[in-house]
Amino acid sequence: MSANAAWRDIQRAISSIPPSYSSLDRLTERHGSLTKWQEQPKDEGAPMQKLSDDERALFFKEFSNWTPAPDRDAATATFKLKDFNAAFGFMTRIALKADKMDHHPEWFNVYNRVEITLTTHDADGLSARDVEMARFIASITS
Q1: What is the pLDDT of residues 114-137, one digit of tens each?
Q2: Domains along the chain?
Q3: Which of 9-13, 40-44, 105-109, 117-121 has the least mean pLDDT?
Q4: CB neighbours of 101 closer than 8 A, spacing ≥ 6?
Q5: Residue 82's closest CA among 116, 113, 109?
Q6: C-alpha to C-alpha distances, 84 to 87, 88, 113, nearest whole angstrom
Q7: Rounded to an integer, what distance in angstroms lies between the CA atom of residue 103 and that of residue 130?
Q8: Dist CA 71 CA 59 (whole Å)
Q9: Is 51 helix (H, G, I), strand (E, B) or coil?
């Protein structure tokens, strides 16, 4: 097989792989809200898609305690808990969810304060995985 034929086979195989998360556009059109978004099955090996500008705006509307990071396509939030034990427990719950998702937030902790940054490195910005993680964090803080 020639190199060109092999390359065409690779391109054909890659183009047949469905995205790991369908576009949130269809989901938000149906539901009108990211909080109603349902987790999509993870497809290993498919490229992660970055949120569109409209989806990104909807993210910050739905999760008002999150703010855009000033230097990149990411979301940040600070959580103040009762004490260090509560902060550590909060981080542990997120860590367990993150491990299941294979999607780990960036964070910083001092005593009862936890600063979290969400972004998807594979997508070079916010993705459906960040929506899922923000929704999980909201569920354990309310």
Answers
A1: 999 999 988 888 999 999 999 999
A2: 49-141 (3.30.1360.20)
A3: 40-44
A4: 42, 129, 132, 133
A5: 113
A6: 5, 6, 8
A7: 8
A8: 18
A9: coil
